[in-house]
């Protein structure tokens, strides 16, 4: 079917940007492929629809999107070059990235190897890290918003849904794609950086397995599976995958945002840590390496075989320009809508919204809601006009809520949706029929006019009374949420029912709140809520039970890391002697494989090495006896330099070092000192020597000298006697007495 001529094709905006052809059209804007005449390059142009360009609020939102996206200058993010208003056309100018989308690759190639998946996720998380560092939340991470150029560049596109991280609770508006939506968005708790992390976890699962973790007959079914189920491990689908990927996906897709990485940078660091530790077999699952570049080339070749005529855009060009545009853009080509995996335009709004209306019922014909097929199942994309997204919209008095919080089934596809505020009427008709009276009221006649006036008065009175009842005592009345924390589920539900509202319950693990009791309520205690909206209760499932890992043989740091990975913590650490190497775990307080509560402490005992051994007493023993005794006790014996001893005879041990009785490590060296016996010297002959000479000779020999003189004193100064006598053996240092006359 030939494409209708677009009036803007061929036009030049601000004398610079020539519009070449239309690529995609959405509820707020149209995306074109264009040419920057000044810099002579191709660009993607996003032009706000004329009826919205007249709205100051819509234009401000459009410009705010450009300013927010332009703050990001990361190589992994599609750049915003310019924005402006030319006459009635408000537009953005963005980087044109020729290539394919990640959705194209998954659709044509299936599951990726860990090598290729890690390359994609590294780039996505790098771009997202830049956004989170700038305090921006993307809010629509999915394969359609990941562009891969022919030269291998990977870029994160479409920050049209992005919001400042501090504004995540400001509105209940459009928030993303149901296949990747986080539990907190389903339950209306708002988005922050951790919402993006959840979507990245789903994306990683899809890259590794080739499919999304959750499917269902309706978007409602899929959304509630995000709330009520745990994302399966990728290795359940691909057993060859490293368990590191199971832990990574589980961490990113925790139900509670506080349990996920707080920032894309945290997720990226863990991803790279895993990448550094994978073997080649784990990178490629034992097959020949397949790079992302090879997958992209194969995808382009496959798309090229289905490429249209020369004068029509290629699928790669459409992908590059459309993804560079807005979240509300739908491809002009019908090819994309035939893909069972294509949820590029399937978006989701939380079941508890600040606008006060249900979002799961089908929209009226004149609303700005588009139906997008996903696997052949009708799904809804709610796009509120820019000037109504932040207004409170109350349901009409005669309508029943489109969503019954007490049931989890999808609502009827034939129930009426909320009509735009400007077209609201009391009757059941919608669309053009609602704007036409059911019968003429223009015929002349006072009686007929009087009846008509009376009818109008009656209707106004009826509506006024009904409205007063609705907002005063009916389902629209406000109540104050009571304190429900730590109450049993039945007690909390009873209190809410007594107040005229209902409870929406979900479950989560808790280490602080007893099983079956309320962890939290939304709105929280003290806040107000309209009766028909209900209160979300999170009921405790008790603590998550964790299998105790084997810590034996690990050092303290490794044991603590293993426990943290298992969501347990290290308890008391003690030591005792053991034959195991010092510093290694030899005992743990919880049995390996036992199931204990998440966050529990596991005590460990570390080896301080073998117990010390008492040194045997070997003093006075022969050398051979001493050596045998010490070796038997497990020591190594070393002989030191022998020493003279007056106490121990030659050949016996004088002492050991360490001494006997001391406790030392088994296998230590023990030094023994062996006796050489007493230190004795032969006494020299000094008879007939002079006193001085005799004294010198004896002192040089190591003796002390004592002199005895004759009765008449020293006459001839000659030694006439010595004791001990010459040739005798005397202890070195002993005294030799000489007689001098």
UniProtKB/TrEMBL annotation:
Residue segments, region Disordered: 306-337, 356-443
Gene3D superfamilies: 3.30.10.20, Phosphorylase Kinase, domain 1, Transferase(Phosphotransferase) domain 1
Compositional bias annotation for Low complexity: 316-328
SMART domains xref list: PASTA (SM00740), S_TKc (SM00220)
Residues in PASTA domain copies: 476-541, 542-608, 609-676, 677-741
Keyword Nucleotide-binding in annotation: yes
Catalytic activity as recorded in UniProt: L-seryl-[protein] + ATP = O-phospho-L-seryl-[protein] + ADP + H(+); L-threonyl-[protein] + ATP = O-phospho-L-threonyl-[protein] + ADP + H(+)
Annotated InterPro entries: Kinase-like_dom_sf (IPR011009), PASTA_dom (IPR005543), Prot_kinase_dom (IPR000719), Ser/Thr_kinase_AS (IPR008271)
Domain of life: Bacteria
EC number(s) stated in the UniProt entry for this protein: 2.7.11.1
Pfam families in alphabetical order: PASTA (PF03793), Pkinase (PF00069)
Chain ranges passing through the membrane: 450-471
GO molecular function, one term: protein serine/threonine kinase activity
Protein kinase domain ranges (all copies): 17-272
UniProt keywords, alphabetically: ATP-binding, Kinase, Membrane, Nucleotide-binding, Serine/threonine-protein kinase, Transferase, Transmembrane, Transmembrane helix
Swiss-Prot/TrEMBL GO biological process terms: negative regulation of fatty acid biosynthetic process
Protein name (record): non-specific serine/threonine protein kinase
Organism: Pseudoglutamicibacter cumminsii
């Amino acid at each position: 079917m030939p494409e209708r001529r677009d009036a803007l094709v061929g036009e030049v905006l601000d004398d610079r940007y020539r519009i070449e052809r239309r690529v995609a059209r959405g509820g707020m804007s149209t995306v074109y492929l264009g040419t920057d005449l000044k810099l002579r390059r191709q660009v993607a142009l996003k032009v706000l629809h004329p009826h919205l360009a007249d709205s100051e609020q819509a234009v401000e939102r459009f410009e705010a999107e450009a300013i927010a996206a332009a703050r990001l200058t990361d190589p992994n993010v599609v750049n915003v070059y310019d924005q402006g208003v030319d006459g009635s056309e408000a537009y953005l100018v963005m980087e044109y990235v020729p290539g394919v989308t990640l959705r194209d690759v998954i659709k044509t190639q299936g599951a990726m190897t860990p090598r290729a998946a890690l390359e994609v996720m590294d780039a996505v998380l790098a771009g997202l890290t830049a956004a989170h560092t700038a305090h921006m939340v993307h809010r629509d991470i999915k394969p359609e918003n990941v562009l891969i150029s022919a030269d291998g560049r990977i870029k994160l596109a479409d920050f049209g849904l992005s919001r400042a991280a501090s504004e995540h609770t400001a509105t209940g508006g459009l928030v993303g794609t149901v296949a990747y939506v986080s539990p907190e968005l389903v339950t209306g708790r708002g988005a922050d950086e951790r919402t993006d992390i959840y979507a990245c976890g789903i994306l990683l699962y899809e890259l590794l397995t080739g499919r999304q973790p959750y499917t269902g007959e309706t978007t409602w079914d899929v959304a509630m599976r995000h709330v009520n189920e745990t994302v399966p491990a990728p290795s359940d689908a691909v057993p060859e995958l490293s368990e590191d990927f199971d832990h990574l996906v589980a961490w990113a897709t925790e139900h509670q945002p506080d349990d996920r990485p707080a920032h894309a940078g945290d997720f990226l660091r863990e991803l790279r840590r895993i990448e550094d530790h994978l073997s080649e077999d784990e990178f490629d699952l034992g097959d020949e390496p397949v790079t992302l570049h090879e997958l992209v080339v194969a995808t382009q070749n496959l798309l090229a075989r289905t490429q249209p005529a020369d004068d029509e855009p290629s699928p790669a060009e459409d992908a590059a320009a459309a993804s560079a545009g807005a979240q509300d853009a739908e491809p002009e080509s019908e090819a994309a809508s035939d893909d069972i995996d294509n949820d590029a335009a399937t978006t989701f709004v939380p079941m508890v919204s600040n606008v006060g209306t249900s979002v799961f019922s089908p929209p009226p014909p004149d609303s700005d809601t588009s139906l997008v097929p996903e696997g052949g199942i009708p799904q809804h994309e709610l796009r509120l006009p820019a000037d109504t997204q932040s207004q409170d919209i109350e349901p009409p008095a005669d309508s029943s809520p489109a969503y019954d919080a007490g049931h989890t089934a999808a609502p009827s596809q034939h129930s009426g949706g909320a009509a735009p505020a400007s077209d609201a009427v009391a009757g059941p008709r919608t669309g053009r029929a609602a704007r036409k009276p059911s019968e003429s009221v223009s015929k002349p006649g006072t009686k007929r006019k009087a009846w008509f006036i009376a009818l109008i008065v009656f209707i106004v009175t009826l509506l006024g009374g009904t409205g007063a009842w609705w907002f005063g005592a009916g389902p629209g009345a406000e109540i104050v949420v009571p304190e429900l924390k730590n109450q049993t589920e039945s007690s909390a539900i009873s209190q809410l029912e007594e107040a005229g509202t209902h409870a929406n319950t979900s479950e989560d693990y808790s280490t602080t709140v007893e099983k079956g009791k309320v962890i939290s309520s939304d709105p929280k205690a003290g806040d107000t809520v309209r009766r028909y909206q209900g209160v979300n209760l999170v009921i405790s499932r008790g603590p998550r039970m964790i299998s105790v890992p084997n810590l034996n043989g690990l050092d303290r740091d490794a044991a603590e890391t293993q426990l943290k990975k298992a969501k347990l913590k290290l308890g008391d650490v003690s030591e005792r002697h053991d034959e195991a190497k010092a510093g290694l775990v030899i005992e743990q307080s919880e049995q390996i494989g036992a199931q204990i509560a998440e966050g529990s402490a596991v005590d460990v005992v570390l080896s301080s090495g073998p117990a010390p051994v008492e040194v045997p007493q070997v003093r006075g023993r022969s050398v051979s006896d001493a050596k045998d005794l010490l070796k038997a006790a497990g020591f190594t014996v070393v002989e030191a330099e022998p020493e003279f001893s007056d106490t121990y005879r030659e050949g016996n041990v004088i002492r050991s070092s360490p001494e006997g009785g001391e406790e030392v490590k088994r296998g230590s060296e023990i030094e023994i000192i062996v006796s050489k016996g007493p230190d004795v010297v032969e006494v020299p002959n000094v008879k007939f020597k002079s006193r001085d000479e005799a004294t010198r000779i004896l002192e040089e020999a190591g003796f002390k000298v004592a002199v005895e003189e004759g009765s008449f004193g020293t006459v001839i100064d000659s030694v006439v006697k010595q004791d001990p006598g010459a040739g005798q053996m005397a202890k070195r240092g002993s005294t030799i007495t000489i007689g001098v006359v």
